[in-house]
Specification:
Order of helices and strands: HEHHHEH
Helix content: over 70%
Number of helices: 5
Largest sheet: 2 strands, antiparallel
Radius of gyration: 20 Å
Length: 158
Amino acid sequence: MTTGNLRSADVLAERIHRTNITYARLYGPLVVLVIAASFFPYYSPEPDSSVTYGNLWQEVLSIGRGVDVFALFALLFTTGLLCLAAVGRTTIAVLIAILTGAIFIGCTLLQAPGYVSPPALTVFGIIDISLSFLIAAITVVHSLHLFTLDLGFQRRTA
């Protein structure tokens, strides 16, 4: 590798770092919002029903259905990766994992697995679904931004 290529590799590394830091400013508050929303019930009971729904943590601790445990695992895994992204330690592979987790969380809340007839969503359920798809959109844009930087570097060195 020549000296010019080393300098351009350093420039690329600096641009990637700046890009990751810029997006990290978005991921931090989103992590806090997603975790905070998980402490509120996602589903509201029917007006004449005695059934009550708890938040995700209550559902796991009281009922412990496999669906709830898996949803909690997906939430913790995705928010853990978002915490990594919030400190600027991001690769395209991590972004793909965050994207997958965010889409899974949003689709799971929309589908309400484990219920014969899905209950109505609360405001916090709608907020969490919106946050999930917002996170998915941001990670797609972030990964395309990193991919474009890398593609531009490869074209200059070729």
